[in-house]
Design goal:
about 425 residues; alpha/beta; Rossmann fold; 2 domains; 7-stranded mixed β-sheet; 13 helices
């Protein structure tokens, strides 16, 4: 009985202490970041994975006292809006977010959706300057978004497709085992951009390589990739270059394994969302992925960052963390505090000068086109426990060993953006 009373007293004291040190923002109106993403349908797992990243980033901001403004600190909250993977639904979600009074929206898991949202935001901000909105993009990497379609209201925190391809080519150019390449991608703006840039960079970096396949497939509609895998194997390719993501990547690598394809996969997203588990032992030394950060980056700060995330989300299925999303939230908070207000134009002017560092990783926004500049890494799949593979992915037993780090200055590419800035 006495032990139970002591336990209850200890719990009560803990609650009182926690209450005493709750930061002031807990009683303030939250600043909402609206996530417009696929939360239902075949790509729902990708939207939920992003949501977990954003929630974790917001929790970190709130734990240190929230966003500091002249009227007092305020917490950051993530508001969910389901685009269902469709452009029209995304537009409806955007309208709902604006009607809810949101100033900051974020999206990334489709360049086609990103382009539609960007056009809509440009028109809205011109029509209603009193309700202007900023768009933060964490994954939509069609280069056009920060080139021909660049906008003051849009800020991209991922390396675009050409930058990612250049990082992959840093590895492929020295891979003399690759002589025949099959290009395969999703048939929409991003997938088309990946294949276009692969052709261009292969011609420059590896003119000796033969492209033995070059095709696009419907996005999110293929349930059986075995016919594609059979063509890849029959072509004699010893490498596949693909920008596929989500189920389109997982099903592709599963089919390739079943078909007996023994070549390499040069991927944009082969390091997450089921792909490592799908390909299994066949991917050891063969699946190569480019990213802004990988869990096995050999630094103490990086390891601590990853361990903190896994402590917050311990389920293997939830193991999807991206440094760029954390840096994006940090940049937004920094810019709101620098602007001293929630006015979209004021925050935007601060955001285009943002420079943030977290757990040893840094990002700098380039004002010319609002394309973030950051180090990129390339990793190769291996069994957990192998040298350089301390952590696996999603409990699969497989992780990615970092084989190349591409400094931000080397990853940077020119832009054709002609930025039109608003007047305050």
């Amino acid at each position: 009985m006495h032990q139970e009373r002591r336990r209850l007293l200890k719990s009560a004291v803990a609650v009182l202490c926690a209450t005493a040190f709750v930061p002031a923002p807990a009683q303030s109106t939250p600043i909402r970041l609206a996530m417009i993403e696929t939360l239902s349908g075949p790509f729902a797992n990708t939207g939920e994975a992003v949501f977990r990243n954003l929630v974790w980033a917001a929790e970190r901001v709130n734990a240190r006292g929230g966003i500091k403004l002249p009227g007092g600190a305020r917490p950051l909250a993530i508001a969910r809006y389901d685009s269902k993977g469709q452009s029209e639904e995304a537009l409806s979600a955007l309208r709902a977010a604006i009607d809810d009074g949101v100033t900051f929206v974020t999206q990334g898991n489709s360049s086609a959706v990103a382009a539609v949202l960007l056009d809509a935001l440009n028109k809205h901000n011109e029509r209603e300057p009193a309700r202007r909105v900023l768009y933060l993009n964490y994954s939509a990497v069609d280069p056009i978004l920060t080139n021909e379609k660049c906008s003051f209201w849009h800020y991209r925190f991922d390396a675009h497709a050409d930058m990612r391809m250049a990082a992959l080519m840093e590895v492929l150019k020295d891979d003399k085992a690759v002589g025949r390449v099959y290009l395969l991608g999703q048939d929409y703006s991003f997938g088309q951009a990946v294949l276009r840039e692969a052709r261009r960079q292969l011609a420059v970096m590896r003119p000796d390589v033969a492209i033995v396949g070059d095709e696009l497939h419907p996005m999110g509609r293929i349930k059986d990739f075995l016919p594609y895998a059979a063509k890849i194997k029959a072509s004699g390719a010893n490498a596949v270059v693909t920008g596929n993501w989500g189920n389109d990547l997982t099903l592709l690598v599963k089919a390739a394994r079943e078909a007996g394809f023994e070549g390499k996969f040069y991927t944009f997203y082969g390091n997450a969302l089921g792909a490592p588990a799908a390909i299994g032992d066949a991917g050891i030394g063969k699946v190569i992925a480019v990213a802004d950060w990988l869990p096995n980056l050999p630094t103490a700060q990086s390891e601590a960052f990853y361990r903190d995330f896994r402590e917050r989300y311990p389920k293997p299925a939830d193991d999807y963390v991206h440094m760029r999303m954390q840096l994006m939230v940090e940049a937004l908070v920094q810019s709101i505090e620098k602007a001293g207000s929630l006015d979209a134009a004021s925050v935007g002017l601060a955001l285009e000068q943002a420079s943030v560092t977290l757990s040893g990783q840094s990002a700098r926004m380039r004002a010319a086109d609002h394309q973030v500049q950051q180090t990129l890494v390339v990793g190769v799949m291996d069994r957990q426990g192998a040298p350089g593979v301390k952590f696996d992915v999603e409990g699969s037993g497989y992780g990615f060993r970092v084989i190349k780090q591409v400094a931000a200055a080397r990853a940077e590419l020119p832009t054709s953006c002609i930025m039109q800035r608003p007047t305050l």
